[in-house]
Amino acid sequence: MSKTITIDGKEIPYEDGQTIMDAAIAADIYIPHLCHDPDYEPHGSCKLCTVNVNGRNCSACTFPALEGQNIINQSADLEQDRKRITQMLFVEGNHFCPSCEKTGDCQLQGVAYYLDMHDNHFPHFFANREMDASHPDILIDHNRCIFCNLCVRASQEKDHKNVFAISGRGMNKHLIVNSITGKLKDSNIHINDHAAHICPTGAILIKRTGYKVPIGERTYDKQKIDAVALAKENKHHGR
Amino acid sequence: MAAKLRVATTSLAGCFGCHMSFLDIDERMIELAQHVEFDRSPITDIEHCGPCDIGLIEGGVCNSENVHTLREFRKNCKVLVAVGACAINGGLPAMRNHFKLEDCLNESYIDGMGLENAQIPSDPELPLLLDNVHPIHEIVKVDYYMPGCPPSGDVFWSFLSDIIAGREPSLPYELVHFD
Fold first, then answer.
1. With a threshold of 0.90, does the pTM exceed it?
2. Fewest CB atoms less than 10 Å from the CB: which of A188, B40, B47, B142?
């Protein structure tokens, strides 16, 4: 008999070594997330996947599934916390959706839509961040980086290149490129690298592809992110 | 028949695209006119906002006149609504926040191509520019938000229909877009 945990009153199986997120995805239960991708080691940074486990809040992507856990994923309090976290991500960067090529395909936007977020609530930072358009095929707009570390993990774990890293702390935190000039053009990234395609926002973009699909016909214009994420992540689940 | 709701609209640092989108409710405007009447708005050309039920604000806050207009709306409107990306997060006008105001003015009025008698406008009747463009919730309390660049005509219709019917306004998933 398999071991089980309970999420929102529903008993679901888990295997030793699985996180709560792993078990939830396998059971077709969506827990909002941005920095998590089942193909990579969990990072636990965005905190969108915060769930309540036996009375305590924790990140579902890093917390192991254990026998007897009673997990709350959907509650008014958690939805409000997740909305505030998403709003903080929006005001901390410069996310001007109408001017972004990724609009409609952006997971940050998709989560905001899912959470019925209509405003950014907090005062905006309007931080001054640069763009690196030096590479012939790939562009970085630092205004849209949410420090999810997915490009860092993809470059290390899949591409075996170490092109990216996060440097600095707090307000000074930023994505850096491993090259002698710090520019993407002088790194060994290639257009076919996983790291070039994994960004959940419009921070890392492939040039000359932005408007192939018209605005209004893009991923989250048509489908909610829970359906999109579960269809993608359940199929490829397990490292 | 219940008294008509009084609605005021204005564009601050916006492009009037949200107002154009409002007109996209098309023939539903006739039905709307049975329930609302317009106070200050581009439709009426009234200079100041009087006591109103609903104030629809398009655009962010980029100059001193915007601040005065916004505060006047807040003072007079029972329900104040941020309409569109610029009112909600500064939108594209706020992309100038990455540059010094002086550099923006020099680029537009001094260093721009083909300028004759180049000078920065300084007429006392011109409102003073703020260093940054601000979303309106940083200046006044906002009651509701209609996201989009612009929000579609259907968003305007859905929101106003809810208010007219006395319902708490809510937008279905397919109407919520940030672009």
1. yes
2. B47
